[in-house]
Amino acid sequence: MTNANHTLSFSDPETTKPVQRDAARLMVGTDLAAEMVAKAAERAKKLQDETGVQPCLATVLVGDDPASATYVRMKQNRSKKAGIGSLSVVLPAETSTEELVAELTKLSEDPTVHGILLQHPVPSQIDERAAFEAIAPGKDVDGVTMHAFAAMAFGEPGFRSCTPGGILRLLEAYDVPLEGAHAVVIGRSPILGKPVGMLLLASNATVTYTHSRTKDLADIVRTADIVVAAVGKANFVRGGWLKPGAVVIDAGYNEGNVGDVHFEEASQVAGLITPVPGGVGPMTISLLLEQTVDAAEAQRQTS
């Protein structure tokens, strides 16, 4: 799952003089994600064999954005491989908030559906938060509701936001010490930046949130033992911003398979770094499937 260090020659951003240092080890999520999906598949099969209930993930797509449609198809394909049923709901781009809420409410009340994924972003006329809150907490396997955020913040039972939860699993797999570490989160979205900070805090890291209004951002990032980039801008975080040996988690995905971190620069300074693709992305989908099986098991116990 990890790869051996190797030495590169690069130019120091402060002096432009060639120096030598070990390149960062890659934090690859593909193998760990495959293990998680395999275990979820075993649990899904056991549940179906013992009860006749197949875990089912409902995906809701509003409009015909090609990227969103591709993501949904990928999640459906992964579900099938894991023995998880899928229900696809595709709504027209002009769908209103009320119509979307009604559809999500119907799925929440459907006993054959165990998890619900609303593909985001949604068209601009829709109140995304209202749509998310229409998902029953017990079926919020993507961890997007306020209930899920509160559970993460207070350490109570509930589903984790999939990308933040996947990041924590990846950090654990690579034995990254979180207790006492200074983590800087770049971005404050309600389904990525904010929850990943809460999960890091729950692991006894000291967390600094940064965002578009933050002053002296590079100076703050240089103090971080762990950097989580979730800003949605290609190559935004530069190598010269990093403390040598820092752990760098690139949660961005931009056009051309480019993350939020300038990988070539950062990999020459960091100790550990996630690639894009192949780092955080696989973890997100695997946790979604794992939590869908969790939801099916929980709903079976209470039915």
From TrEMBL:
<dbReference type="InterPro" id="IPR036291">
    <property type="entry name" value="NAD(P)-bd_dom_sf"/>
</dbReference>
<keyword id="KW-0521">NADP</keyword>
<feature type="domain" description="Tetrahydrofolate dehydrogenase/cyclohydrolase NAD(P)-binding">
    <location>
        <begin position="161"/>
        <end position="299"/>
    </location>
</feature>
<dbReference type="InterPro" id="IPR020630">
    <property type="entry name" value="THF_DH/CycHdrlase_cat_dom"/>
</dbReference>
<feature type="region of interest" description="Disordered">
    <location>
        <begin position="1"/>
        <end position="20"/>
    </location>
</feature>
<dbReference type="InterPro" id="IPR000672">
    <property type="entry name" value="THF_DH/CycHdrlase"/>
</dbReference>
<comment type="pathway">
    <text>One-carbon metabolism; tetrahydrofolate interconversion.</text>
</comment>
<dbReference type="InterPro" id="IPR020631">
    <property type="entry name" value="THF_DH/CycHdrlase_NAD-bd_dom"/>
</dbReference>
<dbReference type="InterPro" id="IPR020867">
    <property type="entry name" value="THF_DH/CycHdrlase_CS"/>
</dbReference>
<comment type="subunit">
    <text>Homodimer.</text>
</comment>
<keyword id="KW-0658">Purine biosynthesis</keyword>
<dbReference type="Pfam" id="PF02882">
    <property type="entry name" value="THF_DHG_CYH_C"/>
</dbReference>
<comment type="similarity">
    <text>Belongs to the tetrahydrofolate dehydrogenase/cyclohydrolase family.</text>
</comment>
<keyword id="KW-0028">Amino-acid biosynthesis</keyword>
<keyword id="KW-0554">One-carbon metabolism</keyword>
<comment type="function">
    <text>Catalyzes the oxidation of 5,10-methylenetetrahydrofolate to 5,10-methenyltetrahydrofolate and then the hydrolysis of 5,10-methenyltetrahydrofolate to 10-formyltetrahydrofolate.</text>
</comment>
<keyword id="KW-0560">Oxidoreductase</keyword>
<feature type="domain" description="Tetrahydrofolate dehydrogenase/cyclohydrolase catalytic">
    <location>
        <begin position="29"/>
        <end position="142"/>
    </location>
</feature>
<feature type="binding site">
    <location>
        <begin position="187"/>
        <end position="189"/>
    </location>
    <ligand>
        <name>NADP(+)</name>
    </ligand>
</feature>
<keyword id="KW-0378">Hydrolase</keyword>
<dbReference type="Pfam" id="PF00763">
    <property type="entry name" value="THF_DHG_CYH"/>
</dbReference>
<feature type="compositionally biased region" description="Polar residues">
    <location>
        <begin position="1"/>
        <end position="13"/>
    </location>
</feature>
<dbReference type="InterPro" id="IPR046346">
    <property type="entry name" value="Aminoacid_DH-like_N_sf"/>
</dbReference>
<keyword id="KW-0511">Multifunctional enzyme</keyword>
<protein>
    <recommendedName>
        <fullName>Bifunctional protein FolD</fullName>
        <ecNumber>1.5.1.5</ecNumber>
        <ecNumber>3.5.4.9</ecNumber>
    </recommendedName>
</protein>
<keyword id="KW-0486">Methionine biosynthesis</keyword>
<keyword id="KW-0368">Histidine biosynthesis</keyword>
